[in-house]
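**Backbone description:**
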Amino acid sequence: MDIGVRRIALLLEYDGARYHGFQYQSNVNSIQNELETAIVKLTNENIRIKAAGRTDAGVHATGQVVCFDTTSNHEASIFVQGLNHYLPEDIVIKDAKDVHLHFDPRRSAISRKYIYRVLNTKTPSPLLRRLVHQVKRKLDLNAMKDAAKSLEGTIDCKPFSGPLGSRKSTIRTIYNCNIETHGDIVALVIESNGFLHQQVRRTMGALIEVGLGNMTITEFQSLSQLGEARWVIPAKGLSLVNVKYSEDIFNSNIRTEEHNVQEVGNLI
């Protein structure tokens, strides 16, 4: 039976360690290429997917959202089972839903939430080496929390950005910016209506300098207004954990302080 074109939204989790980012690139591994290849195998349709966030090389996700159009009559649950059958073990479809044809995972998003995890121990962890950035010296968590909180609001995020390309505006609204802990894990949990290139990694890099006593909170605040955050810490500690929409597509938009703490330990 011909059901016409429909749009399917997928909720993804992936380990980005062996990929050159989400977006398709010729001659290198990408999350997009793996997913589109799996869709061809399941539906026999050559399509292009759209994503909520084009995560960089080495960045992980537990809450990436993508969508694609299809004429397949598979139930949404079949897309979960079928695509997971064809995908490599470091990419998993967690859920699939039919959505309106006007839904765009990037443009329809109200906010995105990222977590950057640091392992604050003297010795490394073999099990966590691909998921966290290690800082051996003890961090001053209270100073880091105060500095992080100072970023909340509508601000110019340019000092925390990498190369901007053709972007015209660097103004973003940061809804929440917190330092959370889970055992030896110290994490930046940040939610905003949008992010600039390398913004979270540069922000956490500057916060680590505050935590180590190399920068005062006043200097951090001046940096956020006038300077340039030059500390670009490794991508491996960064994860996209949630994308929020006006309609709660995957029943994942409601978050509390307790949920934040649980999210910090999700990859542990």
Summary: Residues 31-43 form the longest helix (13 residues). Helices lie at 31-43, 76-86, 141-149, 199-211, 217-225, 257-264.
